[in-house]
């Protein structure tokens, strides 16, 4: 009923926020690396949700478990799920104010600290759709600090997609939580598929971008992640990891793991010429 009402089969759902490292453009490539058969699906670094939404569409019937340590992002999924019509109305208000005074409204909203869940999420989505390159970044105090982007029509409200996402999140096939990646993978069982898409390790000293939350994702976190991958492998899970094509990442996985290079764009690069031609790694235990 919900899929017919919102046309989920005709129009695949898409991420409702832009997210650094989002996988929407390379889903066809990643799909070729998925295990042929698996039980439940687990994604401990949810981000914009492109891979999760792919798993929830196209007639698939897998139960999905997703998580992210970014509390504001997880709250956004919850509000889209539970209060989508109120959210659409709030975003329409933002769109009207933005069209009347782009810079004034953007920086007023960026400086605001709303307390209600609806106001917080509509603020987050508005800033995400109108800020520079859709870059989500907070400083050490947890303050969003990205400047206004240059858009003629940033698409602040996509009511059809928001309703489709809401229907999917209410379908009973997906759970979303706010946990550390180790905790979020605790329930993965033998035969389940676990996909890790963490903040990438920097490919150079000037290319670092790991500040999705107040804490960076550094070398110690990468080592913890590699250890978790090994434990899941021993448990009999199908494990897949995306990350930068760097010696540091490769060093954590031995010959029993398969490593492939894939081409991917860097959508948040300030230099448009530096957004293409990069390779990243897809690592699996199968």
TrEMBL record:
Biological process according to GO: DNA restriction-modification system; methylation; mismatch repair
Reactions performed catalytically: a 2'-deoxyadenosine in DNA + S-adenosyl-L-methionine = an N(6)-methyl-2'-deoxyadenosine in DNA + S-adenosyl-L-homocysteine + H(+)
A GO molecular function held by the record: site-specific DNA-methyltransferase (adenine-specific) activity
Keywords attached to this entry: Methyltransferase, S-adenosyl-L-methionine, Transferase
InterPro entries (UniProt xref): Ade_MeTrfase_dom_2 (IPR023095), DNA_methylase_N6_adenine_CS (IPR002052), M_m6A_EcoRV (IPR012263), MeTrfase_D12 (IPR012327), SAM-dependent_MTases_sf (IPR029063)
Coiled-coil annotated residue ranges, if any: none
Keyword Methyltransferase assigned: yes
Gene3D superfamilies: Adenine-specific Methyltransferase, Domain 2, Vaccinia Virus protein VP39
Keyword Disulfide bond: no
A Pfam family reported for this protein in Swiss-Prot or TrEMBL: MethyltransfD12
E.C. number(s) listed in UniProt: 2.1.1.72
Family, as annotated: Belongs to the N(4)/N(6)-methyltransferase family.
Protein name: site-specific DNA-methyltransferase (adenine-specific)
Source organism of the structure: Cenarchaeum symbiosum (strain A)
Lineage: Archaea, Nitrososphaerota, Candidatus Cenarchaeales, Candidatus Cenarchaeaceae, Candidatus Cenarchaeum
